[in-house]
Each structure stands twice: as structure tokens, then as C-alpha cells.
Amino acid sequence: MWLLLALVLPAAAAGTAAPPYTTVAASPDGIGKVYMGREISHVMSFHGAPWLERDERLDEERPDIVLNALELKANMTVADIGAGTGFYTWRIAHRVGAGGMVYAVDVQQEMIKALGQQMARRGAANVRPVLGTSADPKLPPNSLDLALLVDVYHEFDQPYEMLAAIVRAVKPGGRVAFVEFRANDSQVPIKPLHTMTEAQVKSEATVHPLEWVRTASNLPWQHVIVFRKR
Ligand SMILES: C[S@@+](CC[C@H](N)C(=O)[O-])C[C@H]1O[C@@H](n2cnc3c(N)ncnc32)[C@H](O)[C@@H]1O
Fold it and tell me: Which end of the chain has fewer surrounding CB within 10 Å, N or C?
């Protein structure tokens, strides 16, 4: 009886039990690991970094609309998780201003290097690059007003552990925002494993102490799905 309680209480105290991972034969774009009904995609290699800086991206993704949907304010502390080359990082850095700060987290050292060069070019001095691991963004607890995940959540290879760690880094009342390409939308020319439905994001996010706030779908191909930490 006491042993049973000892095993059950930690999960109950955390308010959540980790959904299990299962395996399948890997599809061409996936790693063969399944979480809550979807196969996890490969991590985008740093060899694809130029694709993140392509000119067409401004029309395809409309970062101006994404940033407006995030309601950024001066002096905020934001983490750009899976920042890549920093396409969003420097734009956020300018909006939060010199009194704010942006942690730019990535798991690839080469991306961190490219991001550093880009921040220098863009004059974004209030950015702190962070080399994380696939389950730990290495951020201080309760420090963020906003954690932003653009086109990355579907490639976390430990999504439960990683999102739990991100939520720990967010202040109570702070927000976590997912920007993903819309799944099941014939207008969106993106590989299925690199897309997510709003319903799937909501299911996976609310395993954690997050409550859905709003979804912005006024983007060409993506949606911005925003949660608040309880
Ligand atoms: C498709 S790119 C998107 C980059 C950037 N968010 C953008 O929109 O330009 C995904 C990035 O997330 C990074 N990534 C993947 N898994 C990660 C993890 N667990 N923690 C941090 N970064 C991760 C990859 O290394 C890659 O740079």
C-alpha cells in the first residue's frame, strides 16, 4: 500500500501523467516514434539553414502578423525555442527593446553560430543564445513571459519532457505559443509530419498545466496557438 502511494503521488502532485511513447516503422520524414497518435518528424538539419532565411518567407509566413498575435510588449523576457538562424529572434528582440531579453534556444551548435552572426548583423544585443538538449532548454525557472515555438514542436524527439521543461521556465500567468503549419489544409504545401492540427496541439499542450487562450488562423499557411500557464 505505502509503496503504491509512493509511486502514484509524484505524478499526481505534478498534475499530469506522461503519455507513453510507442514505435512504428519510420516513415521517410519521421523517426518511428509515436506520441499521442502522431509520428515525430526528423529534426531539420543546419544544412537547411538557408531555407529559413529565404526571401519568400516574408509572404508565406507573414512574421509581422505572427508577432502582432503574440502581443509582445517592451521589457518582456521571451524564449525563442528552436530558434534556428534567428528569423524570429531579432524581430522579437526589437519589439521587447533594450529593457527586454530573448533567449534563443537550439540543439544544434551550428544553428547557434549562424544565429549569433545574424544577431550581430541585425544589431540585436538583447539576445542570449542557449545550446539546449532535446529534453532541456536550459532556461531559468519561472523566468519567461512568453515561450515561442515556431515550426519546431513537431520535431521534438521528447515532446513530453521538453514541453514540461519549457513550462517550468515560464512565469505563472505567462504564455506558451505554438506556430505550426496547418495540417489537413490542401493550400499548405508542407509535408504532413511537419504540420499539426489545432486539436493535436491542444491535446498535447493541456497534458501540462497550460490552458488554451486563443488561436490566430489569419496567416497564409500557419496557425498561432496560444496557452497560458496556470
Ligand atoms: C524548422 S527549424 C525552425 C527554426 C525557427 N524557429 C524558424 O522558424 O526559423 C527547427 C529548429 O528547431 C531546432 N530544434 C529541434 N528540436 C529542438 C529541441 N528539442 N530544442 C531546441 N531546438 C530544437 C532545430 O535544431 C532547428 O534549428
Answer: N
Size of the chain, expressed as the number of residues it contains: 230
CA 31 to ligand 1 center in whole angstroms: 16
Q: Is 141 part of any domain?
A: yes
Specify if 192 maps to a domain.
yes
Q: Is residue 71 part of a domain?
A: yes
List, for residues 90-133, the tens digit of each pLDDT value.
Answer: 999 999 999 999 999 999 999 999 999 999 999 999 999 999 99
Which cell goes with 90?
531579432
Torsion of CA 189, 21, 214, 224, to 10 degrees: -30
Task: Enter the pTM of the model.
Answer: 0.94
As a 3-state breakdown, the chain gives helix, strand, coil percent values, each rounded to 5, of 35, 30, 35
Ligand 1 nearest atom to the CA of residue 135, by list position: 19
Full domain range(s) for residue 213? 47-229
Looking from the CA of residue 84, the nearest atom of ligand 1 is 27
Looking at the structure of the chain, the number of domains it has is: 1
Instruction: Show the cell assigned to 229.
Output: 500557464
In CATH, what number is assigned to the domain containing residue 201? 3.40.50.150
Query: Could you tell me if residue 102 is inside a domain?
Result: yes
Q: Is the CB of 156 under 6 A from ligand 1?
A: yes
Nearest-atom number in ligand 1 for the CA of 149 is: 6
